Amino acid sequence: MANYDIDLVVTSAPHIRDKVTTAFIMRDVIIAITPALIGSIFIFGLKSLLVIVVSVISSILAEMLGNVLFHKKPSLNDLSASVTGLLLAMTLPPSSPWWMVVVGAFSGILLGKMIFGGIGSNPFNPALVGRAVLMVSWPTYMTTWIKPQIMIGLQNISQASPVDSITTATPLNIVKLQSYSQLISDFGSKANLYKALFLGTVGGSLGETSALLLLIGGLYLMARKVIDWKIPVIYIATVFVLSPLFGRDPIFSILAGGLFLGAFFMATDYSSSPITPMGKVYYALFIGFLTVLIRQFGSYPEGVMFSILLGNAFVPYFDKIMPKVYGVLPKKEVAK
């Protein structure tokens, strides 16, 4: 029998490679979030554009600093820092001061990403880490909302300063501090409320007002197979089903706040979400349950950010939940 010398080369994972690159995926995310970005500028004015630009530039600078501090290879070409900046901006009020946006971007990139090893190693969504830091540091700024320009007249669409002085409360704030019936009274009817939430003519963060624009982006990501349908669909469905158990309008619950933004763009982050099919299901159910629970009993009117960050912490456990494999004996039986 002939002898053959075989050179075995052992490399680290991943062993299965795909032509789809990180930059390709991030480019699709940017395309998907663009309708909401444009919508926020139209709804809130040029103040929104300032928040977006400062957030993106700060995230890129933070990534450059992180590469130096943690001795990482340059990673700006993968566009992940730009995506983090865009997503962070979408979670902030239009009236956010520029210095606060800078702090949020650096916190999200350095504390939520680079300190764990960079892209692919972060257990928490970096944009939400940045927002969480800002929320606990400057709660007043983070809960000051301006009235959409559409509600005060389109003649001010090119002027940011007149709008800054007109503050308003978000629908979730009104429900938390007053009542749902008061909210209906303010809008005239449920139909008017649903329409305002769907189109985005309500107070709130840049990316949490128009459910329509976020839905368009989410459908694009699913059509492109950038994200799996399980997490966003099950997450939204869980909030819809559980909300009536606490006396909340299910349609209002899924349209209000940052649920669509969180479902399509935050909870589906590759690094901080489960990779197994069943893990995704349990993860989506878990964060949906937490969102309803926090909205009902928490001191904050919104629960999307906290629920996703808590869900991120449990991702390793969700990935270990595997369906029963028939035809395979349990370990105890094998040992006998």
From TrEMBL:
Signal sequence residues: none
Enzyme class: translocase
Domain of life: Bacteria
InterPro entries: NqrB/RnfD, RnfD_bac
Gene that encodes the chain: rnfD
Keywords: Cell inner membrane, Cell membrane, Electron transport, Flavoprotein, FMN, Membrane, Phosphoprotein, Translocase, Transmembrane, Transmembrane helix, Transport
Name of the protein in its database record: Ion-translocating oxidoreductase complex subunit D
Annotated family: Belongs to the NqrB/RnfD family.
Protein's UniProt keywords contain Transmembrane: yes
